[in-house]
C-alpha cells in the first residue's frame, strides 16, 4: 500500500492510491492533512446527537406502523372485516411485494436527491396511508392500504442504513446502527404497550379498538391461552431482551473489529430457540413456550445488524454500497413474504410449519456465513501476497481508483 510519506514525497501532478482501512473505500488522494483528535471526537458526538436519534425515532414509528396489523388481529380485525381463510395472510404478504421491489430504486433516488428531503417525504406518505387503513371496511381496502404502505416504507430502512455508512467509519458504524435498529426491538415493546391501552378504547368515537392501531408474536401468545390484552403486554419483555442483546452484540463486534462470529452466535441462538419451540409440549406448558420465544427472538434480532454492517464494510465505492445494501435488505424481506404464510391458524398453538421453516433458515444462515467468511479470508490472503511492484505493473492509478472493493489494496472485514 502506498504510504502517506510516499504521497508527500511525490507531490506531482500524478496522485497516489491508498486504502483507508476505516472507510472501506479505495480512494485516489493527495496528501492527507492531520486532524485534531479532540476536534474529531467533538464533531463525531455532534453527528451522534443529531443524526442517530432522529433515524431511531423514524424507524420506531415505521416499524410500529408496519407490525401493528398483528396487534390489530388480536384486537378483532378478522372479525370486523369478515376475513376468511388465508385473507389475513394475503394482507400480510402484499406489503412485502412493493417493499422489496422498490428498495433499490428508492436508494437510487436517495443518491440523486437529498436524505433531508427524501426520508421525511416518505415518512409523511406512509403516515397518510396508515391513517387511511383505520377506515377500511373490507378485505379489498385492507390489501390496497397494505400495498401502498409497502411502497411508501420501502425507501426508509435501506436509505437510513446507507446514510449511516456514509457518516461513520467502518468500525464506528455498527455501534451507531444498533441504536437506530434497536428501535425495531423497542417498537415491539412499545406497540404491545400501546396496543394494551388502545384495546381498552374499543367503542370510543365509534371506532373499534383495532382501527386505532392504523406479527406474529402477539398472535402466538394469544394462542397459548392468554387474553388479547395480556397477549399484547407479554410481547414487551421479549422485545426488550432482544434489544439488549442487539446492543451488546453490536458493541462487542465493533470493538473486536469482526462480524462473522457474531452473526454465527445469533444464528446459533436462534436455531436453538426454534428447536426448543418445536420440541416444546403444547398445550399445557404455555410458560415454557413463552420462554423459548425469548431465545429465538434474541438470536434473530442480534445477528441482523452485524450482517448489514458486514456488507456495508465490504462494498466500495459508495454507489455500489448503496445498491448492494438495498439488495441485501430487499432479499432479507423475502422472509416477510414467507413468514406471512407459514404460521397457519390450523396449526396453532404448535405452528410446526412456521418454526420448522425458521429453523431451516437459521441453519442456512450459519452455513452461508461460514462460506462467505472463507471467501473473504481467501481474497485477503491473496492480496497480502501481492507486492507493490506487482500491483503497479498490473494497474494504473486510474484503474485502481475504479476497482473499489476489488482493488488489491482493499481488505475485507471478516
From TrEMBL:
Disordered: region residues: 1-25
Protein location: Membrane
Major facilitator superfamily (MFS) profile domain span: 180-414
Listed Gene3D superfamilies: MFS general substrate transporter like domains (1.20.1250.20)
Protein name in UniProt: Major facilitator superfamily (MFS) profile domain-containing protein
InterPro entries, per database record: MFS, MFS_dom, MFS_trans_sf
Keyword Transport recorded: yes
Alphabetically ordered keywords of this record: Membrane, Transmembrane, Transmembrane helix, Transport
GO cellular component: membrane
Signal peptide stretch: none
Organism per entry: Pseudallescheria apiosperma (Scedosporium apiospermum)
